[in-house]
């Protein structure tokens, strides 16, 4: 909710000031995108917002969707995404003239939960991710993703005990998808399952 409020505050800021000065060439549409930035990796799996401004009075389409433009030219649209290299194609029209702008971003592949009839460890998600230096008394967290619905344990090379790992509740992949669908209507396909976490404090054992 804080992220949503911050976006709203930014939009209100854009609406409070004229974004483009009126000149003799004001009928030539201009496009400025504030978010996302070119080449940015989007932290969403299915949809996200795009925020910016155009010359006041312009009609705007983004990826063939009609987008409302405020009187001073500001716009805020919430649009679907596809995984991989993704392009926002903006087209502003004013006074019979059209300006096009393409913005390339990267969208992460959605996480696919392994089927419950297959024993699988996802090597692309394990904690720690690299060798670390710790001292006696430090808290060690171990985590991995894999087949959901199992009992999981981890063991230290210096300790013969097995430590229990707990499977996390199903997690939404995308904050913005949750805002779009709501808590009750969130698509099951976007929920991540099979994340196991275990914690222990390092102790010296003879």
Q: What are the secondary-structure elements, in order, as H or E?
A: HEEEEEEEEEEEEHEE
Rounded radius of gyration (Å):
24 Å
Largest sheet: 5 strands, antiparallel
- Portion in helices: 10-25%
Spans of at least 5 consecutive residues with low confidence: 1-9, 16-25
Structural class: mainly beta
Question: Helix count?
Answer: 2
Overall shape: elongated
Percent of residues in β-strands: 35-45%
The averaged pLDDT comes out at 80
Terminus-to-terminus distance: 50 Å
Count all strands and give the number.
14
Strands of the widest sheet, in order across it, are 8-9-14-11-10
Oligomer: single chain
Question: How are the SSEs ordered, and which strands pair?
Answer:
Blueprint: H1 2-15, E1 31-35, E2 47-54, E3 59-62, E4 65-67, E5 74-80, E6 84-94, E7 97-107, E8 121-127, E9 139-146, E10 152-154, E11 163-167, E12 171-172, H2 175-181, E13 191-192, E14 195-201
Antiparallel strand pairs: 1-2, 2-5, 3-4, 3-6, 6-7, 8-9, 9-14, 10-11, 11-14, 12-13
Key descriptive features of the protein:
four-stranded antiparallel β-sheet, five-stranded antiparallel β-sheet, mainly beta, disordered N terminus, 206 residues
Describe this structure in words.
It contains 2 helices and 14 strands. The chain has 206 residues and is mainly beta. The strands form 4 sheets. A 5-stranded antiparallel sheet has the order 8-9-14-11-10, with no helix packed on it. Strands 4-3-6-7 form a 4-stranded antiparallel sheet, with no helix packed on it. 16% of the residues are buried.
